[in-house]
Amino acid sequence: MMGLLVLLNQHKGSEDVALLADDLDLEIDEILPSIDYAEVLGLVKVSDGRATFTDLGRRLVAATIRERKAILREQLRRTTLFKTLLRALENSPDRCLSDDQLGQIVSFTAAPADDAVQNIVNWGRYTELFRYDAAEHRLVAVPHSPATKQPPASGHSPPPGSGVPPASSGGRSKPTAPGSDRGDTRAAPTVAATA
Q: What is the rounded CA–CA span in Å between residue 42 and residue 52?
């Protein structure tokens, strides 16, 4: 989605969706999920086949990586799926959800579960709403205070759009402390998540 938004910015913030697909050497149906997701997040408006930035979309592409994360985090929190997911994390006694629990929540959406789960994990990690402990196969809530900034993580994780779930640091079999992967500058996930 971010690559599409950067391209739209190069087209002065408004362009025919078919021309954007052509510029990316993709079929139109290959970019529609990203266009739809950008629209759900309030970043673009699509009318008569033309995608146009909203004010928020313009702010996003002009923002720093940290500012982009904050903007996307707030927009994701407004979607029904992320509201439900975050509420479930908050209400869980250990503030964690297993893969099965996550799958149950996603099963109430219309998206294919495997793709949706991977996208949720990628977008949620990128925006620092939660982290994923691959060794324990669970999401872990990350306490979030906008006034507190954590230093970048020292470990390396696969890129969010790579299809590989992010692992806990150091390959340990137990989860890392919540917030230990905050402050990184990974690129935004490139696939659309289900809202």
A: 11
Other C-beta atoms lying within 10 Å of the C-beta of residue 26: 14
pLDDT of residue 154: 34
Distance CA(154)–CA(169), nearest Å, equals: 8
CA distance 139 to 118: 12
CB burial class (10 A; 0-12, 13-18, 19+) of residue 92? Answer: middle
User: Token pair for residue 97?
Assistant: 């959800």
Domains delineated in the chain:
2-61 (1.10.10.10), 65-171 (no CATH)
85 vs 113, higher pLDDT: 85
Is the pLDDT confidence value at 15 over 60?
yes
Q: Per the structure block, which two tokens stand in for 98?
A: 């297993």
pTM: 0.66
Q: Give the DSSP letter string of 30-93.
A: HHHHHHHHHHHTTSEEEETTEEEE-HHHHHHHHS-HHHHHHHHHHHHHTSHHHHHHHHHHHHST
Q: Residues with Cβ < 8 Å from 37, sequence gap 6 or more? A: 1, 192, 193, 195
**Contact yes or no for 125/83 (Cβ under 8 A):** no
